[in-house]
Design goal:
By secondary structure, the chain is of the alpha+beta class. Helix content is 29%, strand content 33%.
Length: 217
């Protein structure tokens, strides 16, 4: 289970007022891990790499055979965290089991944004859904929002050679209509964003989001 802070340090609650949202939790599959991308990134990546190779490095495989794979996994995770940071993310989630020396090309990034002077989050969510035929209104743990699914083209400038399947959840933070959480998922699969494996990864992501719950302080 992953839990993350969202609360502002100057928050003051009135006596008897409803507790303010302080973060969220999600239940991750066994092979998935969280990497904070603002602080503690290097430490988290080192722990993930150490864990990934702990069961392999028992004397049966020479260290010099494992070292290139360790370095490549660390490089991939560092690059994924860099991209997430550039996107304004606060946390990156991805599978860390190796397939032929590489990580499965799927991940999701959590970020937070502000919308000014929102009076009715439901109305904002309805407008978002109406403006995009790929979007549908949702409600998760009391939060209204939209879910959007689409296929993104290759982006050679970013080193992305293939198209990807993208799913975005945009959720209004309960009790604070100006704060919105964005959970952005991407799956490269084997190069075809419409293949069966890419769609299975989307199903897995939706199952993860079904466990999403707010935490309060």
């Amino acid at each position: 289970m992953a839990s993350d802070p969202m609360v502002s340090p100057d928050t003051v609650k009135e006596p008897g007022a409803e507790k303010r949202v302080a973060g969220y939790t999600v239940v991750l599959p066994p092979a998935w891990r969280k990497i904070p991308v603002r602080h503690g990134t290097d430490k988290a990546i080192k722990e993930i790499v150490d864990e990934a190779f702990a069961n392999l490095n028992r004397g049966d495989i020479p260290r010099d055979k494992l070292t290139p794979y360790r370095m490549e996994l660390g490089r991939q995770l560092t690059e994924a965290a860099r991209r997430a940071r550039q996107q304004g993310g606060t946390e990156l989630y991805l599978p860390v089991e190796l397939e032929h020396g590489t990580v499965i090309a799927a991940s999701f990034v959590v970020s937070e944004g502000l919308l000014g002077d929102v009076e009715d989050p439901r109305q904002v969510a309805a407008c978002m859904a109406a403006e995009d035929e790929a979007a549908s209104p949702i409600e998760i743990d009391g939060a209204v929002g939209v879910r959007t699914e689409r296929v993104a083209p290759p982006d050679p400038a970013e080193g992305v050679e293939y198209g990807s399947r993208r799913v975005d959840y945009v959720l209004s933070v309960p009790g604070d209509p100006n704060r919105w959480l964005v959970i952005a998922f991407s799956a490269l699969s084997a190069g075809d964003p419409d293949d069966k494996f890419a769609k299975l990864l989307v199903d897995l992501f939706d199952a993860i989001i079904s466990t999403f719950r707010w935490t309060r302080s």
